[in-house]
Design goal:
Radius of gyration: 19 Å
Low-confidence stretches: none
Bound molecules: zinc ion
Strand content: 25-35%
Strand order of the largest sheet: 1-2-5-6-7
Number of strands: 10
Mean pLDDT: 95
Largest sheet: 5 strands, mixed
């Protein structure tokens, strides 16, 4: 089941109270339409009687019961212990668990897993992309996996000017996936909640030190 509450928020424009739905958890097997509404951010969108659009953002749990995956959208590090206390039960049931720190990260994880890809190997590809963009002087960017188009990986590149698409990395992924499924499989483990650029750097820094 999905867990949904009603709540009230004040409209920032007219100060009227607006009744909103708050989705604490979304079970995408039982509620596939809610998955679509999550991906399009519709679950966060509410309209006041005055016409003002309210876009809320809050923590929630994405629960893919069919594929045994849970992604927690958890904006605040302070909530990590609460999530950690829940992991044992899910891991025992064979779940893959991840935590996303913002909505784009959550969306990215959903898309990676829906394509049957290894998110650690995708972070490795993104790391190469960040390197290439940095070389051409673009540093203040975010990169998110966006799917597979015409047989190539598609990424969204976000900078202060906006978002654009880039195709990249399928061949590099295919050439390296064995490493992530074998040698680096502890990093790609079901229990590794945080698979992102920060933890990728930390993991490979440690690996390099071990090799010394
Ligand atoms: Zn209003």
């Amino acid at each position: 089941m999905s867990r949904i509450d009603k709540s009230e928020v004040a409209c920032p424009k007219c100060q009227q109270k607006v009744e909103v739905m708050v989705y604490h958890s979304i079970n995408v097997k039982l509620d596939p339409t809610l998955k679509e509404k999550l991906i399009t951010r519709e679950v966060f969108r509410n309209v006041c009687k005055c016409g003002e659009e309210l876009n809320l953002m809050y923590d929630l749990m994405y629960h893919d019961m069919g594929n045994l995956r849970i992604i927690w959208l958890s904006h605040d590090e302070k909530n990590t212990p609460g999530i950690l206390s829940l992991t044992g039960m899910w891991l025992a049931s064979g779940y893959t668990l991840r935590v996303a720190r913002n909505f784009n990260e959550m969306l990215e994880k959903i898309k990676i897993f829906d394509e049957g890809l290894n998110d650690a190997a995708i972070e490795f590809i993104k790391n190469l992309m960040y390197g290439e963009f940095a070389k051409s002087g673009e540093r203040e960017i975010d990169i998110f996996f966006d799917g597979i188009h015409n047989g190539e990986f598609s990424f969204v590149i976000i900078n202060e000017k906006g978002a654009r698409q880039a195709q990249y990395g399928k061949k590099v992924y295919d050439a390296n996936i064995n490493l992530f499924e074998n040698e680096y499989k502890d990093y790609a483990a079901k229990s590794n909640l945080f698979v992102n650029q920060q933890t990728l750097h930390a993991y490979f820094t440690k690996k390099l030190e071990e090799m010394k």
